[in-house]
Every structure is written in C-alpha cells, then in structure tokens.
Amino acid sequence: MAVCAFSSVAWAQNTYRCGDSYSQTPCPGGVIIDTTDKRTQAQKMQTDKASQRDAQIAAAMEKARLQQEAKDLAANTPAVKPATPASARKTRTSQAKKKNAPEMLTVKTAAVTKKKKTSKPSSKQPKAKKT
C-alpha cells in the first residue's frame, strides 16, 4: 500500500525555455520557467463559470442555427415532384407489361415480306453531266 501511495504523488517538473521552444529537459542556455498556477481559488472559479456560460451560449447558438437551416431548407424544397412527360410514362408501363407476361405463353409471329430488288445508282459512281 505504501508503494501505491508513493507512486500517486505528483512531482513538479521544471520547464525550460530553449530559444523559441519549451522542454522538460535542460538545454544549453535554457531558462527555468515557473509553470505553477498563480490564480486564487476565487479567480479559478470565476474562469470556470465563464467557460461554462460560454459553452451554454454556444450550444444555444448551434440549436438556433440548426432550426434556421431546417426552415430555410423547407422553404426552398419544392412541394410537388415535377411531372414526367407522357411519353416516358407510356414507355415505363409498356416495359412493365412486357416483364410481367410469362415467356412460355407469349407467341411471336414474324411477318415475311419480300422486297423487290431495284437497281439504284451507286453513290460512288459519278453522275452523268447533261450537255
């Protein structure tokens, strides 16, 4: 138990100013800085209360900001979705019907038509000039 009590004691460490940096290890030309809190208990309580008050004000400001953002978003959001064109609706419904029809019952017939071959002048041949 004595070992636990001995290890829990906080030992003050020296802080050294070495040029523009601070360190816990001594350096050549380093100056020892006193880092103890020199405020009175009343000053510390006053600072703590001010910090709590600032935190409460910040929370209230955030809540007000979030409410204002929600109002702005609601005001700028369209109430009704834009209507889709009639051609897009027909295409969608016909596709849905095709998907719902069972394939084994669908009969497809192919109309066979014969086209006469006509001789057309080739586009690669130059046209004859009229004289």
Give your account of this protein's structure.
- The chain is mainly α and 131 residues long.
- Helix content is 44%, strand content 8%.
- It is built from three helices and three strands.
- It has helices at residues 2-7, 41-76, 86-100, and strands at residues 15-18, 21-23, 31-33.
- Strands 2-1-3 form a three-stranded antiparallel beta sheet, with no helix packed on it.
- The relative contact order is 0.04.
Cα separation of the termini: 126 Å
In angstroms, what is the radius of gyration?
44 Å
Instruction: Compute the number of strand runs.
Output: 3
Please give the count of helices. 3
Q: What percentage of residues falls in helices of 4 or more residues?
A: 40-55%
What is the overall shape? elongated
Largest sheet: 3 strands, antiparallel
Spans with pLDDT under 50 lasting ≥5 residues? Answer: 5-9
| SS class | mainly alpha
How confident overall, as mean pLDDT? 75
- Portion in beta strands: 5-15%
Strand order of the largest sheet: 2-1-3
Order of helices and strands: HEEEHH
Name the features.
mainly alpha; 3-stranded antiparallel beta sheet; 131 residues
In short:
The chain is mainly alpha-helical. 44% of the residues lie in helices and 8% in strands.
Task: Detail the topology: elements first, then pairings.
Elements lengths: L1 H6 L7 E4 L2 E3 L7 E3 L7 H36 L9 H15 L31
Antiparallel strand pairs: 1-2, 1-3
